[in-house]
Amino acid sequence: MPFTIIRQDITQMRVDAIVNAANTELAMGGGVCGAIFRAAGADRLQTACNQVSPIKTGEAAITPGFDLPAKYIIHAAGPVYRMWNPKESERLLRSAYMESLKLAFKNKCGSIAFPLISSGIYGYPKDEALKVAVSAIKEFLTDHDMDVYLVIFDRAAFAVSKELLGAVESYIDENYADGHRDRRQKLLAIEYKAMSEAMPPLLFENAPAAGSKGLDERIGELDEPFHTTLLRLIDARGKTDAEVYKRANIDRRLFSKIRTGKGYMPGKRTILALAIALELTLDETDDLLERAGYALSHSQKFDVIVEFFIINGKYDIYEINEVLFKYDQPLLGAG
After folding, report:
1. Which of 2, 97, 275, 288 is most open to solvent, judged by the fewest CB atoms within 10 Å of its CB?
2. What is the model's pTM?
3. What pLDDT sits at residue 202?
4. Cβ–Cβ < 8 Å for 287, 328
């Protein structure tokens, strides 16, 4: 997926570049900064930093990754949060992300991993820091192809809007039933049973049973295939391919495989991401899923959360993935 929130130690990320939440002098600090210096080799990294420092708040500089799995370290100077001037704090934090992304692109990086800049000792409220990070990354990915990771070391430190989480929690309480098979699963089961009964038993004789339909005729009676339905929906919504795969947070190459319809069927998370990108209703989403053999289920918390966003007309896949991450669920996109 182009943008993924992941729980991991950023020093272990196998990407082209990791981002260090740095001070303007690019001196070794504590926390994540100190961990990055130690993992890369503190002396060599400090020597390299001294050659490109100082930088201003909101700016970024690049050094080799040395002993890290990453080829580069991009040092971004985020702001100390000023509650009396939140707009300036936001501008500087956004700049730190954008300058880092531009540096990565300039150095031909195909992947980059960020910490949540300024959300530690610099005091930026974590929910606001998350909004700025996601907004900047989303804007950059509109015009660039790159795999971007937001690395969260401690899930408890990951903050999503309390109002949104409260609404999601209420919906889960009302609709999530462990072990419950909902309406859509039952429909699929009935459809599968009917299809099985309609098919003649496998005959090892030379000719089919009298009056039975040939295979070509039965195939011709099948519903519209998944990829045909998808392309029809894209045209009906007046969207371009690029708009759809970017809004779905999936890779362009994966979308091309889906589009051809030549023997490849995407997974459920990818199909739901496409439904979000196309802003489908719940019934339209059900139909698209069924054409690939899937269904939403109230026995799956992941499904209930996604259903909440669709029913409420909230089609921002980044926001949905933030909530899914908070509930320790897989994210929408490739899968």
Report:
1. 288
2. 0.80
3. 42
4. no
Taking alpha carbons only, the member of 27, 46, 29, 34 closest to residue 9 is 34
38-41 long-range Cβ contacts below 8 angstroms, 24+ apart: 39/11, 39/67, 39/68, 40/11, 40/65, 40/66, 40/67, 40/68, 40/73, 41/66, 41/67
Which is nearest to 66 in space by CA: 40, 86, 35? Answer: 40
Cβ distance 182 to 297 under 8 Å? yes
Residue-wise pLDDT tens digits, 98-128: 999 999 999 999 999 999 999 988 999 988 9
- Cross-strand bridge partners of residue 64: 72
What number of CA atoms fall less than 13 Å from residue 80's CA on the CB side? 3
Which residues have CB under 8 Å from 265's CB, separation 6+?
226, 292, 293
pLDDT value for 186: 52
- Provide CB contacts within 8 A for 86, sequence distance 6+: 128
Alpha-carbon distance of 160 to 153, in angstroms, equals: 16
> Is the bond into 115 cis (omega within 30 degrees of 0)?
no
10 Å CB burial of residue 129 (0-12, 13-18, 19+) is: buried
The residues near 264 (Cβ < 8 Å, ≥ 6 apart) are 257, 258
Return the ∠ at Cα 330 (arms to 300 and 154), rounded to 5°: 120
